[in-house]
Design goal:
homodimer; alpha/beta; Helicase, Ruva Protein, domain 3; globular; about 200 residues; Dna Topoisomerase Vi A Subunit, Chain: A, domain 2; two-stranded antiparallel sheet
């Protein structure tokens, strides 16, 4: 006989599929929803249903969107000459809300990782290649995280852009603002030094 | 203009209502559900709906249950002479799966806390009082966490049981198994010493 009743077990199992939620947290969440926040539970269930039926990918930049084209691609005042490539939606939002960049984006939704079966097609790179080939793009900005797969992805993107004769740049990796040289890791410091800019 | 589209915003806000989920985690969960686990999302939405419609409280012990009576109350081979009072469903499950106790339970779903508007009625203590008054209960086991409100609740329960002439006991508070006297906090050690048992 399992510990909980069937519906409660199913609820706990479903909550465990959320990232970062283990068995204990899932149990706590289930009890919280059932005991203290039934309104919140109903709202969550409805919000997931709505999101699943209404949110798809923008055909041009692959960001999540609710209409034919996402808000970033449909804004007419955006420069169309720059495309900033990011790994995921959260990266796009971080750049959009913290920087003055107002060009276009391209969201890979992942990194090249052949061992996990993620190749150029899974990341929509053919789509990006078509956009680069159209002739109206003059800069591809690579804003990929500096992990091993990220570096491979950045290298692939650089080659793609060069083949289309589009300029490529990469966001700077170096000492973070407020960080201290003494405590920064060696690899970051090496990047910071080799990427120094004339003043 | 808010950062995300309306449905995505609603999904993130709903996920934030789960305990222990902040804005960043909610965002990560939403992206995970939409990007990598649409099946899981549909399953979660359905599981919440099912749980809300099908799970209620056992009329006798207040544990979550799906039928007229919960599995703990409907088991005929359980001793009906003992009632173990716990704060929440997780406590019941912990006792049931780790100890040999096979009596009845009573789940308070909280602690007495007048400042939060939680009095005896909110914890179903009238219901418990009726059960104690019936005459077939000979021991009330208090398994409440030893917090300030917990102590107040335990005191209230003790008085209730005494008024009905039912024996009361409290689970032991002391040095945990594998713990070392040297590192145990003073209050626990004081409890352990005053609660010593003859060998």
């Amino acid at each position: 006989m399992s510990t909980f009743s069937p519906r409660l077990t199913r609820l706990i199992e479903s909550l465990r599929r959320l990232p970062g939620v283990g068995p204990k947290s899932a149990q706590r969440m289930a009890f919280h929803l059932l005991d203290r926040d039934r309104d919140g539970a109903a709202q969550l269930s409805a919000a997931i249903g709505e999101a699943l039926s209404g949110i798809s990918r923008c055909p041009s930049c692959r960001m999540f969107c609710e209409d034919d084209s996402c808000r970033y691609c449909s804004e007419s005042r955006r420069s169309t000459g720059q495309i900033c490539v990011v790994e995921g939606p959260a990266d796009l939002v971080a750049i959009e809300s913290n920087t003055g960049y107002r060009g276009r984006y391209f969201v890979l939704m992942g990194r090249l990782s052949p061992i996990d079966g993620i190749g150029p097609d899974e990341l929509g790179l053919r789509q990006l290649g078509e956009q680069l080939g159209r002739g109206d793009v003059n800069e591809l900005i690579i804003a990929i995280n500096p992990s091993v797969e990220g570096e491979a992805t950045a290298f692939y993107l650089t080659e793609m852009a060069r083949a289309c004769e589009v300029g490529v740049s990469r966001i700077a990796h170096g000492v973070p603002m407020g960080g201290e040289l003494e405590f920064v890791d060696g690899s970051t410091l090496a990047h910071a030094l080799s990427g120094r800019t004339p003043v």
